[in-house]
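Consider the tokenized backbone below.
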């Protein structure tokens, strides 16, 4: 798969494609259904599939810290799109220049002059352009004149509910990791490279592997029982206690994920980890002093051991390979992608 950063990096070989546009946050089963539509049409036309994404996501550009927390960083999103068979990802920087494009300009510069799109798959609620004129009907009319066809995405449901990034966020926030995995088609995880930090955990016999997180809202915050995989360890999974957040007791300039592997001592600096939160143990708290925090950390370790003690690690279906907690299925609030009249492209919440 090829990643193209910005319109200026498009080449003649990238022209003539089946394309879709969206945030693809989480790359959940709904997104995969959209990509399946693209692949079906691409096979009929013998064309490549291109996914157009924005960085930052439109809502992040307009709302900043008030935007919904991301499910996936760009690096992970691209990896997941590649696993879904996407041939190319066109990543457009969402900046003032892009924001100011009218719907007609977006069609001309991105879809026609840039990609020479032959077939476009978008939601029938898709909106784009600073003039707010861009919608499914305008794309269809433009396609008749410019020589491309437009197809609307099919609604994908699980248990009679529409799959969306918002719904996944809600399930994760309420601790329903099993239901979230059913919508994602995989267990939710964090990935990153271990970096040196304050190393205060070592002083109390609880060393941690620390992964820096992106600044901004966090989809998860608190202490969790988790499973950790270390790149190069042939799929071995280590039970762990993980803290995600700002560490209010000891302080932090940016959010961080701290993972303490139970009964494992090894140097993980520079290694890439995959961390799968399985059950929430408690929320993020501020303690009076480090001694009080130490007492709580050992209590968290005991609770995590109880979670793993109830888990049968025998062969299971994909997302049940981990001891993912269930919880009542929460209903998400209806949200909009970006304030009306401000964004060149938004639809759904994915």
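A designed sequence for it:
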């Amino acid at each position: 798969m090829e990643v193209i950063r910005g319109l200026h990096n498009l080449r003649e070989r990238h022209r003539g494609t089946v394309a879709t546009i969206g945030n693809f946050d989480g790359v959940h089963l709904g997104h995969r259904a959209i990509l399946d539509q693209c692949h079906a049409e691409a096979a009929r036309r013998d064309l490549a599939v291109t996914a157009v994404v924005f960085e930052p996501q439109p809502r992040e550009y307009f709302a900043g810290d008030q935007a919904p927390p991301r499910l996936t960083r760009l690096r992970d999103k691209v990896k997941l799109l590649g696993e879904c068979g996407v041939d190319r990802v066109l990543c457009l920087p969402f900046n003032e220049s892009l924001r100011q494009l009218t719907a007609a300009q977006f069609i001309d510069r991105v879809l026609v002059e840039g990609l020479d799109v032959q077939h476009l798959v978008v939601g029938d609620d898709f909106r784009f352009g600073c003039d707010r004129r861009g919608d499914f009907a305008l794309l269809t009319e433009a396609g008749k004149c410019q020589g491309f066809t437009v197809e609307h995405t099919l609604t994908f449901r699980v248990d009679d509910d529409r799959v969306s990034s918002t719904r996944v966020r809600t399930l994760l926030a309420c601790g329903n990791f099993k239901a979230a995995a059913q919508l994602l088609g995989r267990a939710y995880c964090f990935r990153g490279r271990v970096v040196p930090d304050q190393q205060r955990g070592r002083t109390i016999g609880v060393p941690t592997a620390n992964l820096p997180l992106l600044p901004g809202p966090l989809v998860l915050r608190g202490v969790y029982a988790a499973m950790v995989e270390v790149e190069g360890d042939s799929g071995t999974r280590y039970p762990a206690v993980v803290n995600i957040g700002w560490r209010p007791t000891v302080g932090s300039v940016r959010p961080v994920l701290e993972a303490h592997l139970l009964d494992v001592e090894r140097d993980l600096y520079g290694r890439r980890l995959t961390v799968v939160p399985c059950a929430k143990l408690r929320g993020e708290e501020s303690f009076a002093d480090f001694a009080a925090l130490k007492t709580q950390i050992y209590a968290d370790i005991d609770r995590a051991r109880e979670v793993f003690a109830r888990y049968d690690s025998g062969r299971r279906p994909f997302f049940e390979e981990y001891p993912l907690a269930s919880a009542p299925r929460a209903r998400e609030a209806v949200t909009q992608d970006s304030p009306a009249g401000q964004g060149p492209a938004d639809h759904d919440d994915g």
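The first helix runs from residue 29 to 45.
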